[in-house]
Amino acid sequence: MFGPRRVRKTAATLVATAAAAATALLASPTASAAPQPIVGGTTTTTTAYPFMMQITDASQNQFCGGTLVSPTKVVTAAHCMVGETTSSVRVVGGRTYLNGTNGTVSRVSRIWINPDYTDATNGDDVAVLTLSTSMPYTTAKYVTSSQTSVYAAGTSARILGWGTTSENGSSSNQLRTATVPIVSDSSCRTSYGSDFVQSDMVCAGYSSGGVDTCQGDSGGPLLIGGVLAGITSWGEGCAEAGYPGVYTRLTTFSNLVTAQVNS
Ligand code: ARG
């Protein structure tokens, strides 16, 4: 979804960033290689990640990602579902390519948006969709509320999506994936100030940038040890040095999600 992108950035810092980027390119020509997935990563398939769902409009145009956690329940971001109705969205499983027609398309019978959600930068960015048709794909496990130690700084996390492969680029026709290290809460606070809500968010990315989720990846999974531990939520631009991606800290919402999965 093309929601919160630019946070706190003034025109002056944008110019400074552009100048710094130009300098970096001059200094190291090899750093200018074509942007990759998500941003920086490799292509993959829904066979490798069968729980990876496209969230689409009624015409099956993808706008967010989601994670299948039971045959009829999909975890995504609240900001993906704002303004949507059960008739405006579809969930598509088993479809590696955006322009594919294969896989399983389901209607949505219920949309639960965390009732505390207001804006991604205020936290609470989680939603659960109930599907009308069961998905015949392996589901993902998700963290329990007590597994808070999974977010130890430096832990490798996997991100997935069909989002743009550069900050102002276009979406990837094929599903992409990358790994990024979890960033400490103190470091993320330094990046984002009060927009970083520690109880509700976790950051991931390299301090030098280069690998990140981007627009269209929202709602998709951040996996730690193969377990769903975060939801792609927001960031300052994409893959910028000093601005990691921000993900919903799923341990905080695990019990809420379970209540929806069981309802
Ligand atoms: N808000 C974006 C979306 O709706 C996700 C942005 C993630 N940004 C980032 N720098 N990691 O698709």
From TrEMBL:
Entry keyword annotation includes RNA-binding: no
Claim: Zinc-finger is one of the keywords in the record: no
GO terms, biological process: proteolysis
InterPro entries named in the record: Peptidase_S1, Peptidase_S1_PA, Peptidase_S1_PA_chymotrypsin, Peptidase_S1A, Trypsin_dom, TRYPSIN_HIS, TRYPSIN_SER
GO molecular function: peptidase activity; transferase activity
Domain Peptidase S1, chain residue ranges per copy: 38-262
A Pfam short name: Trypsin
PROSITE patterns: TRYPSIN_DOM, TRYPSIN_HIS, TRYPSIN_SER
Signal sequence bounds: 1-33
Keywords on record: Disulfide bond, Hydrolase, Protease, Serine protease, Signal, Transferase
Family that this chain belongs to: Belongs to the peptidase S1 family.
Protein name listed in UniProt: Serine protease
Organism: Streptomyces achromogenes
Upper taxonomic lineage: Bacteria, Bacillati, Actinomycetota, Actinomycetes, Kitasatosporales
